[in-house]
């Protein structure tokens, strides 16, 4: 199968719809942004053997690549619109491609994002997903808006994906039900698109947790020129995680494990009160974990000292 046959067979199904005048098949896609909106775009690359096991199921690889890319749109309150795919393949394995494209389109449909173009080359397996979304002019959530006195929240529970990865690598063992939930958290993280949009008018700053809570909250604090004080007893941990690791280990996954793709955000005043109330009544799955004060960095509430965990998030270089 040649390059163009491959594109035609596996990656030209989508890309129509009101906002897409030309999708896959020309030199560029031709797209119409919603009026009164700003566009937000982001690209994420995953490399076999570094970000996922090379022998992993292709539909899971595709699903995770799209989900993690969409998480950046969620973090800024954007609505997903379009994506392009840069695919580097060692060879044109049709069985692999069929499953990969099926996984890709399934997630794309679920989140309402159209595949409108890409690039296909030969080389070590590597996948780049570029996403574009939109938000009403001036409404996108930035990392830089946190103010002294704001409270800090996270969505969902943290640490499951990091534990799931340890299970996949054979470095952790647990009961079958917990294992299923933790591995799912790693392979199928949920980009918090709806929550991000709800937070547009309520949060002062937001970031998605890809590298671990402490590392990502550290980025938010730095961008906002403030200090984050976190009460580690308030970090939401799932039953599956607590059933699979001692509490301290579970907390370490949650604080510095990464791959959660939950949102960490700040809010002040009436918005903070509403969010706390929504969290308590579980009408939103958000939890208050700390507060913003003057200074810099991220510290533990009880001692005021930097966290005990050594490694603050994953870094490539
Ligand atoms: P060009 O050489 O003009 O850059 P290509 O030959 O690389 O274009 O691609 C042909 C068409 O197929 C373009 O519309 C491109 O966006 C699309 N395309 C290529 N690879 C992919 C892919 N993996 N997924 C989706 N669309 C792709
Ligand atoms: Mg061209």
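^ Assign residues to that structure.
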């Amino acid at each position: 199968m040649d390059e163009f046959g491959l594109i035609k067979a596996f990656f030209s199904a989508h890309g129509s719809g009101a906002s897409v005048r030309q999708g896959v098949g020309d030199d560029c896609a031709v797209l119409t942004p919603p009026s009164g909106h700003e566009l937000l775009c982001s690209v994420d690359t995953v490399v076999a053997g570094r970000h996922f096991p090379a022998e992993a199921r292709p539909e899971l690889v595709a699903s995770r690549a799209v989900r993690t890319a969409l998480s950046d749109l969620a973090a800024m309150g954007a609505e997903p619109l379009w994506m392009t795919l840069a695919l580097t393949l060692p060879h044109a394995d049709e069985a692999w491609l069929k499953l990969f494209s099926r996984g890709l389109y399934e997630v794309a449909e679920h989140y309402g994002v159209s595949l409108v173009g890409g690039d296909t080359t030969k080389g070590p397996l590597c996948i780049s997903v570029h996403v574009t979304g939109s938000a009403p002019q001036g409404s996108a959530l930035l990392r830089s808006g946190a103010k002294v006195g704001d409270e800090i929240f996270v969505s969902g529970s943290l640490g499951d994906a990091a534990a799931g990865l340890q299970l996949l690598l054979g470095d952790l063992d647990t009961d079958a039900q917990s294992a299923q939930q933790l591995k799912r958290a790693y392979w199928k993280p949920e980009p918090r698109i709806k929550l991000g949009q709800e937070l547009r008018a309520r949060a002062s700053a937001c970031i998605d947790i890809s590298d671990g809570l402490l590392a990502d909250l550290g980025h938010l604090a730095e961008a906002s020129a403030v200090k984050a004080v976190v009460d580690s007893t308030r970090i939401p941990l799932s039953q599956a995680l607590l059933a699979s690791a001692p509490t301290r280990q579970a907390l370490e996954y949650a604080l510095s494990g990464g791959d959660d793709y939950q949102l960490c955000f700040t809010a002040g005043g009436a918005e903070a009160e509403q969010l706390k109330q929504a969290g308590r009544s579980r009408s939103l799955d958000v939890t208050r974990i700390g507060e913003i004060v003057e200074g810099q960095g991220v510290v533990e509430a009880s001692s005021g000292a930097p966290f005990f965990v050594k490694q603050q998030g994953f870094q490539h270089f």
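The chain has two domains: 3-136, 143-300.
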